[in-house]
């Protein structure tokens, strides 16, 4: 089928006629357990990269596997015509583990129930990746004068540790005028939202050793130090667990307050505290005022405890004092904050008060400030309006995507977001799913986005810096 115009009906027909392709491709990808954090899945991660490589070749793209020091990446160019603007679509194909007993279906066997596609990675991020691909194919059939490339990563869920080195090495091959990312979540169904920023993340561990072996709590208790109890004291000194307020001096110094325009965008986003609690199955919150909840989720840093290691964890109580303990933590960071400055404040605070507690930094991700004006932002607005019949609001994203600031810096190309996932889809949760209405609307939205860029007459001449687009001269 060939699209003869840019009408919504044409894109609907295109989506319907390619639904079977979407479902087949999604099954091929979801059925491969691409758990990037698990060394036992390394062969499966590579197999998924090879499957994606073959899939992209099958639709006529010029494709290559990019090797990294870890898992490979997949890069493809659907078109490459001189003089046309180039947009690269970024997604990731690796997934979180699917452990636990709450899955009602096999997480690595795509299950279709009506319009729902259930399986690990269905919404994060394999379904949106394929939606963007079909949107690109629709734009190509519509004759859009735009070059479209795809960059599919397989290490996003482990912090994209090898991403920067890989794209730096292949920078010339990956050259692009802009990047569009589809790995974000709307506030609620029917109300599109696009991030005007991403929080960064600095993970770290605290460790303390006070002995060489377990000690009898009756023979030694009251005299020997207890590393578990002491690390609990360290954490309590760093953060008020009741309010979530971080107690480290200077921690909030670089945080910018929301502007009145940003506050209004948050309030217009369709966010509901009740829906948030229901979607995330939360029984109580630290805060229930809507604007304050959104501010904490999207525009404020955090200090979170993720795990405690040490001592006896079997049934009953073992009356022993452990020799060593560890706490796993992370801070989410907002624009203007950096991993280095945040970590330095934490290290100094702990060193002054708890000198024998060791702070072990893990690789971090700096925050990202997005854009809400200019031709790319306008194209995002038009895309959501076209695909879903609703106006997008620019909020912020509470999560982190390590590749985003890296792409903008290394490729010198602006990044925008055209996300499709919903809170109820269950990012990182059991019974994760994607749904066809979001895919169908997304195909139209992406197709329109590509056509908008093609029709805008935008390009970036060689040597232009900072991702600045200029109007194409009439003679081009």
Largest sheet: 6 strands, mixed
| Strand order in the sheet with the most strands | 1-2-6-3-7-17
CA-based gyration radius? 24 Å
Helix content: 25-40%
Q: What's the tally of helices?
A: 14
**Terminal Cα span:** 30 Å
Please provide the count of β strands. Answer: 20
Could you explain the architecture of this structure?
With 476 residues, this protein is α+β, with helices and mostly antiparallel strands. It has 14 helices and 20 strands. It has a six-stranded mixed beta sheet, sandwiched between helices. Helix 1 crosses helix 14 and helix 2 packs antiparallel against helix 4. The longest helix has 20 residues, at 122-141.
Jot down its keywords:
476 residues; alpha+beta; 6-stranded mixed sheet; 14 helices; 20 strands; 34% helix; globular; disordered C terminus
Quickly describe the structure.
With 476 residues, the protein is of the alpha+beta class. The chain has 14 helices and 20 strands.
Summarize the SSE layout with pairings.
Layout: H1 8-17, H2 19-30, H3 42-58, E1 62-66, E2 73-77, E3 86-92, E4 111-113, E5 116-118, H4 122-141, E6 147-153, H5 163-169, E7 178-181, E8 193-198, E9 200-209, E10 215-216, H6 217-220, H7 227-238, H8 260-267, H9 273-280, H10 290-298, E11 304-309, E12 320-321, E13 324-333, H11 339-353, E14 358-361, E15 368-369, H12 375-388, E16 393-397, H13 403-410, E17 415-417, E18 433-435, H14 436-455, E19 458-459, E20 470-471
Parallel strand pairs: 3-6, 3-7, 7-17, 8-16
Antiparallel strand pairs: 1-2, 2-6, 4-5, 5-18, 8-15, 9-13, 9-14, 10-12, 11-13, 19-20
Helix pairs in contact: 1-14, 2-4, 4-14, 5-13, 12-14
């Amino acid at each position: 089928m060939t699209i003869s115009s840019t009408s919504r009906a044409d894109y609907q027909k295109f989506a319907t006629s390619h639904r079977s392709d979407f479902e087949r491709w999604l099954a091929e990808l979801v059925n491969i357990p691409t758990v990037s954090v698990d060394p036992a899945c390394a062969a499966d991660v590579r197999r998924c990269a090879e499957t994606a490589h073959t899939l992209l070749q099958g639709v006529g793209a010029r494709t290559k596997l990019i090797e990294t020091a870890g898992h490979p990446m997949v890069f493809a160019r659907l078109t490459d015509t001189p003089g046309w603007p180039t947009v690269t679509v970024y997604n990731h194909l690796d997934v979180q583990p699917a452990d636990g007993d709450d899955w009602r279906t096999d997480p690595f066997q795509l299950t279709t129930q009506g319009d729902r596609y259930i399986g690990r990675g269905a919404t994060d991020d394999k379904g949106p990746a394929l939606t963007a691909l079909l949107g690109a194919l629709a734009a190509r059939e519509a004759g859009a004068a735009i070059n479209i490339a795809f960059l599919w990563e397989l290490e996003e869920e482990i912090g994209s540790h090898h991403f920067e080195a890989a794209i730096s090495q292949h920078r010339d091959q990956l050259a692009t005028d802009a990047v569009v990312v589809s790995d974000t979540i709307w506030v609620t169904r029917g109300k599109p939202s696009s991030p005007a920023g991403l929080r960064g993340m600095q993970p770290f561990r605290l460790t303390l050793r006070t002995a060489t072996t377990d000690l009898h709590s009756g023979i030694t208790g009251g005299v020997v130090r207890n590393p578990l109890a002491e690390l609990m004291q360290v954490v309590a000194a760093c953060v008020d667990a009741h309010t979530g307020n971080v107690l480290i001096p200077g921690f909030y110094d670089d945080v910018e307050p929301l502007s009145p325009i940003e506050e209004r965008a948050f309030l217009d986003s369709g966010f509901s505290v009740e829906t948030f609690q229901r979607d995330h199955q939360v029984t109580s919150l630290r805060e229930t005022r809507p604007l304050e909840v959104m501010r904490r989720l999207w525009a404020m840093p955090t200090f979170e405890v993720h795990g405690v290691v040490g001592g006896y964890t079997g049934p009953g109580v073992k009356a022993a004092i452990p020799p060593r303990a560890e706490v796993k933590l992370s801070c989410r960071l907002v624009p203007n904050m950096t991993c280095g400055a945040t970590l330095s404040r934490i290290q100094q605070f702990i060193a002054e008060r708890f000198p024998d507690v060791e702070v072990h930094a893990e690789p971090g991700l700096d925050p990202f400030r997005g854009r809400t004006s200019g031709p790319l932002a306008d194209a995002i607005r038009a895309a959501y309006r076209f695909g879903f019949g609703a106006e997008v609001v620019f909020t912020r994203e509470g999560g982190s995507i390590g590749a985003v600031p890296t792409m903008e810096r290394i490729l010198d190309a602006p990044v925008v977001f055209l996300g499709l996932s919903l809170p109820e889809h269950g990012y990182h949760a059991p019974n994760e799913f994607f749904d066809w209405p979001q895919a169908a609307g997304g195909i139209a939205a992406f197709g329109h986005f590509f056509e908008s860029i093609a029709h805008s007459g935008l390009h970036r001449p060689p040597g232009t810096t900072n991702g600045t687009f200029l109007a194409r001269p009439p003679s081009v």
